[in-house]
């Protein structure tokens, strides 16, 4: 994972200070690529502990075609909570304490954070226990799962991009059209967050399956380690179904950035030496769509301790 650390160092050194949607501020650099040989180990960052269980359950959520956070909460996965929470606190149904700019305020105001945490806990409980509430406020719109599994056509029909690309890999492995896109311009306004990882392409050669991701925007400290591992896992899963060996994962990033409130964390991570990569074991039958959490096993992951950092919402 040295190339990931090299990218962090390069953006710190050569990046440009920019404003951003969240109001946090970033150091940003445009146009970077990393390539991971999956035969050398599973590319999960070792210079800090990365919660692989969250990565795997989020990927299964995408694969299910789900766009409601209820499944994630049932898996104790809170990656998307803030975006759904924002839908609730900005709605006419919400009558609790003022949550304006809750993301930034909860980082700077300890008293407000206590209030925010209490409201967030209430929100999660309502999602899990109140079906009507979950349907209204747990929904994130036409995000990744919808685009991967039910892309809307002008005829009113849908396209299951992921299922079709897997069949294409099996039936026409040399095709240059093994592509899944999450960027649907018509649906962008209805998404809680427009897709950061926008398009991925599979490639078959020498009995191996490789995948390249184009990511328009990448939070280098918090997000990118998740994205690397998520698409590496997807590549393993699709390779297994298609009777291929995992090849490489190529990660192409547009706006690669470090948030201004992550600088201390990044410097701490850069002071650490990478450790040996873990390995991945898939124990289910050769079917991507029936994979459950118990079928995914990470072996010998022994990273440095975790480094906490706030999420920019």
From TrEMBL:
Q: What residue range is the signal peptide?
A: none
Q: Which residues form the active site?
A: 196
Report the GO molecular function annotations: thymidylate synthase activity
Q: In which pathway does it act?
A: Pyrimidine metabolism; dTTP biosynthesis
Compartment(s) of residence: Cytoplasm
Q: What residues does the Thymidylate synthase/dCMP hydroxymethylase domain cover?
A: 2-313
> In which broad location class does this protein mainly occur, judging by the first location in its UniProt entry?
cytoplasm
Q: Which residues bind (6R)-5,10-methylene-5,6,7,8-tetrahydrofolate?
A: 219, 312
List the InterPro entries: Thymidate_synth/dCMP_Mease, Thymidate_synth/dCMP_Mease_dom, Thymidate_synth/dCMP_Mease_sf, Thymidylate_synthase, Thymidylate_synthase_AS
In terms of CDD domains, this protein maps to:
TS_Pyrimidine_HMase
UniProt keyword annotation of Cytoplasm present: yes
GO BP of this protein:
methylation
Under Pfam families, the record lists: Thymidylat_synt
UniProt key word Cytoplasm: yes
Which residues are involved in binding dUMP?
Answer: 21, 176-177, 216-219, 227, 257-259
Q: Which domain of life is it from?
A: Bacteria
What are its E.C. numbers?
Answer: 2.1.1.45
Instruction: Cite the entry's keywords alphabetically.
Output: Cytoplasm, Methyltransferase, Nucleotide biosynthesis, Transferase
Quaternary state and partners of this protein? Homodimer.
State the protein's purpose.
Catalyzes the reductive methylation of 2'-deoxyuridine-5'-monophosphate (dUMP) to 2'-deoxythymidine-5'-monophosphate (dTMP) while utilizing 5,10-methylenetetrahydrofolate (mTHF) as the methyl donor and reductant in the reaction, yielding dihydrofolate (DHF) as a by-product. This enzymatic reaction provides an intracellular de novo source of dTMP, an essential precursor for DNA biosynthesis.
- State the family it belongs to: Belongs to the thymidylate synthase family. Bacterial-type ThyA subfamily.
Could you tell me which HAMAP family the record lists for this protein?
Thymidy_synth_bact
User: Can you say what this protein is called?
Assistant: Thymidylate synthase
Q: Gene name, please? A: thyA
């Amino acid at each position: 994972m040295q190339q990931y650390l090299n990218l962090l160092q390069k953006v710190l050194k050569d990046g440009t200070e920019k404003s951003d949607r969240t109001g946090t501020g970033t150091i940003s650099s445009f146009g970077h690529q990393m390539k991971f040989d999956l035969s050398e180990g599973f590319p999960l960052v070792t210079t800090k502990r990365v919660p692989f269980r969250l990565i795997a359950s989020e990927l299964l959520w995408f694969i299910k075609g789900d766009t409601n956070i209820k499944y994630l909460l049932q898996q104790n996965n809170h990656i998307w909570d803030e975006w759904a929470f924002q839908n609730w606190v900005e709605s006419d149904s919400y009558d609790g304490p003022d949550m304006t700019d809750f993301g930034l305020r909860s980082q700077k105001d300890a008293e407000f954070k206590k209030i925010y945490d209490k409201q967030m806990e209430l929100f999660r409980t309502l999602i899990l226990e109140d079906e009507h509430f979950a349907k209204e406020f747990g929904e994130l719109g036409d995000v990744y799962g919808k685009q991967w599994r039910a892309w809307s056509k002008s005829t009113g029909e849908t396209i299951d991009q992921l299922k079709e690309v897997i069949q294409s890999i099996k039936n026409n492995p040399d095709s240059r059209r093994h592509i899944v896109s999450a960027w649907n311009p018509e649906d962008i306004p209805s998404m809680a967050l427009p897709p950061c990882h926008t398009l991925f392409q599979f490639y078959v050669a020498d009995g191996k399956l490789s995948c390249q991701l184009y990511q328009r925007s990448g939070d280098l400290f918090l997000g990118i380690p998740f994205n690397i591992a998520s698409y590496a896992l997807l590549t393993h899963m699709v390779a297994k179904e298609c009777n291929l060996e995992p090849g490489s994962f190529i990660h192409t990033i547009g706006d690669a950035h470090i948030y201004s409130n992550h600088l201390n964390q990044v410097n701490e991570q850069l002071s650490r030496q990478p450790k040996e990569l873990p390995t991945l074991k898939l124990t289910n039958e050769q079917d991507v769509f029936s994979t459950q959490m118990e079928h995914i096993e990470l072996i010998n992951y022994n990273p440095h301790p975790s480094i906490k950092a706030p999420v920019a919402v």
